[in-house]
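Internal ticket - ligand job 289, adenosine monophosphate:
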Amino acid sequence: MLELSGLSEMRAWSRAQKARGGRIGFVPTMGYLHEGHLRLVDRAKARADRVVVSIFVNPLQFGQNEDFTTYPRDRARDRALAQERGVDCLFTPETKVMYPADPVTRVIPEAMAGILEGAIRPGHFAGVLTVVAKLFHVVEPDVAIFGRKDYQQATLIRRMVADLDVPVEIEVAPTTRELDGLALSSRNTYLTADERRSALALSRALRAVEQAWRGGEANPEHLQRRGMEILGVPGVTPEYLALVDESLQPVARATAKTIVVVAARVGPTRLIDNVVLGEGIAADPAVRA
Ligand code: AMP
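stdout (structure tokens):
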């Protein structure tokens, strides 16, 4: 496996692969890889001839009081996992290479980015879209894979690519979970054993909403209340639980396409999760993490 950290080297490598007729699949990450990331790699391999994984903890998407400095980092472990999974090129730019100066230009999304996660993390999605746009310009992938775990992020990236005519196909893959339902996340490493148990409230709340909906309840307020009952356990501070459509707008009636999005703090750690009602949590791939 090749590892590159320069922008022009990365672009030259991608272009050389493409000149030989190879399709490039791309999985952008912030590292501390887990099985959720590696499933995205599997998808990229199925869709392309060469797979690039980037590891970049993007300062632009963290708020002042967020965990940029403490975000888990372990390059040696990431390298081994990526290599084992058949990644062709690991792209690991330094912050000063990605941002040699404070950016004057950023990709600022419209109102769709100011709700849910965006309401709690102002500026977060401008940081995400800016770095993803930069990475697309450097890697020039044919297809890029994102996780549904970050539902609003994936939706905004799809819209950015459509709005700005970026020549890349976007695929969104289901959420990989632990056997008990906890969605895999690099931030799970922050959790103590007690917090890890409390964190199950998120997936349980989603499952409770899903079950109520399958039982015939379609009123979003009733479903939201049901979810909040399960979420509000000791040790968990709910931030939001909402039933939205594919454009992240509140629904008048829950249908198979409705997405239940949830965010909560477990101790000091912020976690998010979601389920598409018609698919259900049980349909998500589960692994022993
Ligand atoms: P991150 O490193 O957290 O920025 O995530 C990099 C990519 O992996 C994003 O597209 C995430 O949505 C995706 N991802 C993170 N956790 C999971 C998971 N449990 N299942 C599927 N995709 C995930």
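Auto-summary: The radius of gyration is 19 Å. The longest strand covers residues 236-244.
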